[in-house]
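Annotated sample (chain length 341).
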Amino acid sequence: MRCTIVPPHILERVAEADDPALRDIARRSLALSSGARAERHAYTVRPAEPNEDFVPNRTIADAGHKETLPGRTVRTEGGRETGDKVADQAYAWLGTTFDFYEAAYRRNSIDGAGMKLLSTVHYGKDYDNAFWNGHQMVYGDGDGTLFVEFTGALDVTGHELTHGVTQHTANLDYYGQAGALNESVSDVFGSLVKQWHKGQTADQADWLIGQGILAPGVHGEGLRSLKAPGTAYDDPKLGKDPQPGTMDKYVQTYRDNGGVHINSGIPNHAFYLVATSIGGHAWEKSGKIWYDTLTGGKLANKADFAAFAGATVATAARLYGDGADETKAVRSAWKKVGVKI
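Output written by the structure step:
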């Protein structure tokens, strides 16, 4: 499973650029990301024993721009700041994401049982990505021309750690519509972590993923937009955001595991419509519907959009009633994006 924040179609475009330096960086970043995918397959998820001791256990390691994980430990739980902005930001965002899942859903870390949170910073040279490898977070520093350090955006950490939550719950396959749902769930909760941290309501949020990781001069706001899929960036080097927001624009492709980073725009937009229709803090009701659907044990790992949509409607009806405004909002959102239940 290639659980990287920057989709391969961006790096593939840069890998064909006229600029030889950027071309080489993109090709190397693609190769390292493919290695992360192979490593991700090596981890086996074992059932975790419930643990009510809600105390984070964070470790930050420094790869020293090498490609060996985890690297040299530079900070552990409760330790002093290192003075390295990137390492200390990674430590802080691990804590924020842990606190979000505890406060919003009474979840104790990624596995629900207090799993250790490990992050490696300064991975590779000019590495243009961040990823979850099934065991830990890994951050590149970016090349400085297209991307800057990937620890800068809280939703990047929230997104990648949520891949771990999915891994330990529904374990959605990483291909086709199930893979796009896997990516979408990470975008949804990545955005919710940021909204929770800022105390924002649904109408106050930017609904962007990766705002702040694009280098100065790049034309774009972030990597993806839940509010308006297809509008996050439009840059001569990166290309144009290809995400559809409705099923009539669904992209049939074998690349990127069946377009998991592209077609995720459809369930992303459905969640945005639900959240803005219900209003208030999106993690409270809309997020609760999505979270319970993901973790309830009834979602098949090969679930397609229709199966997931039906499951969210059933969850909303269970939580709020079949005729409740919340349930109506969920039904309406899926209809608007063209997913038939």
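Annotation: The domain at 176-336 is CATH 1.10.390.10 (Neutral Protease; domain 2).
Annotation: The chain is about 40% helix and 10% strand.
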